[in-house]
Amino acid sequence: MKIFSLSKFFLNICIDFFISFCEISENYIYRTQQSLRTFRRILKTIMDEDNELVQGLVRQRVIDDIDPDQPIIVEDVNMDDEIYSSAEEVDWTSSNSSDSDDSMRGAMLPLRSLQGLAQYNTSRPKKMYTFQPYRLTKRYFRNRNAMGGYPLARSGHRVIASESNLYSLGGYNPRTANSARRRGRCLLFQELWAYNFAANKWSLVLDARTTSGMPTELASNALTIYKNVLISHGGTGFPFGEYCSNDCYFYSTGQKSIVTKLQVTGDLPLAQYGPAIVIHNDYLYTIGGTTGFDYSCDIYRLHLIKRVWENVYISRPEMRDDPEGRYRHEVVYDGKHIYVLGGGTSQLVYDLERIPAFNLKTNRWEYYDTLPDPTLVNNTDPRSGYPKPRKCFACVQHTLSNGDVEAFISGGLQGDSRTYFADIWKINITTKQWYLIRTARLPRPIYFHSAANSGNGCMYIFGGIECGEKDMRRRNDLYKMWMTIPKLSEMCWDAITYYNEDLDVYNREILLDAGIPDRFVNRVPLRIRKKPRSEINETRLDSSFENLPKRQRSRTQ
What we know:
- This protein has 557 residues and is α+β, with helices and mostly antiparallel strands.
- Among the domains are: 5-130 and 489-552, no CATH class; 221-327, 6 Propeller (Neuraminidase).
- Helix content is 16%, strand content 26%.
- The protein has eight helices and 26 strands.
- Strands 1, 23, 24, 25 and 26 form a five-stranded antiparallel sheet that branches. The protein has a five-stranded mixed sheet with strand order 10-14-13-12-11, with no helix packed on it.
- A hairpin with a 4-residue loop joins strand 25 and strand 26.
- The longest helix is centred in the first third of the chain and has 23 residues, at 36-58.
- It is globular, with a radius of gyration of 25 Å.
- The two termini are 38 Å apart.
């Protein structure tokens, strides 16, 4: 049987990944024999619950034709993440195609051309892919983008993620601010960037120079995603605290990207920066923030359909047991409570041992005592086993298969403005247990950065102010860490994108015919061009690409 090479390559990744996965540790999965017979039995179980990807991979490969005692290992590919070599010459064109446009070389490639892709990727040296949860890895994107094709170093920005992209809004850098001042522009970054996970590329979605209506208060605002639309709230312009915002903006990131300021009514919150927001039952809740002088922990909510603000709770810590006012805190949401982690004022920070939580049913504050990491408890220090109090840190959350909600915090700043953090901690909101992540740590202490969960249990950390031994500087580094063990299909997709960073040069039909499920193809920013009719008549394409319906054409997130 003539077997299509790229699907074979995909299955090789799947099999080899599973073998590697079984070696992670006893804490994650029982060790199993590294034989194909064992894999077949496990594969059947996987197919029952996650069969779209696996069936696509198995579809063009007959497992019974393979020696079951011979393990299938993907060739060790490598591309040093820092240096993306593009010097190698590869024939990307079909033997029947006369298309020589390099920039669109994958737009209408027949399936057999993907054999070259598999051979190309397995011929270059790259470290063997291994799935490692709780390991921080740097994403090297600069050589995957043209000059100026990625965001500059910044702090005070906010990020949020969909399944396909990480979005970064706003931020500040004094070096670019000086240039903007000379040109009479906003001193903050009036732009929205999107980083595509599959292609390892950034793209500029919205920019004040080409898009009208971009806000100017784009430092320390809050950002979330609601029904595939990005929503920002609050923030400050520069100088910080001199003028703030209580507006909400919608950002559409489809084929026609636009920004819209919401026209709202009702009892609006104060114009503040450094708040935190949560979506609950079509309401946007905003918690805390500062005007630059006063700090609050008040709660307001906006009905996103009716677009009406209402006051939910005004904190009065001097009169009752309400949390103190704060900014640059983070919140975790479990469907019933909004938990407030850390934060502070210009002179102090709040601890992470006793956490205030707002009950969404009773509209009252409650407090929960957390448990320290049992491996770090020191009888002589009652605060051992807990993360240090902090503000200006990053936090993401995800839900485990058993329904428990976990939150991961990273970096941050202490109240003395001289103590910075590079550690990563996890808290199980259900059990209130803290754990220090020993296998992952930021390269250097950092604060005013931002992080997001891509929805499959993978955390991305971007930007911030990095604290070195001699200086402090803003960064645009991007880090990735798996917070859990996701479905096998997600891990296989992670391996496929690790070995193939050029998936975006192919059109949608090629990737679907290669066995990649629709939900993963939708994550790739595919490029497509229409060929002239004369060229199509002269070029005999594979029958599987003839008369394609319009709905199968590529689309981007």
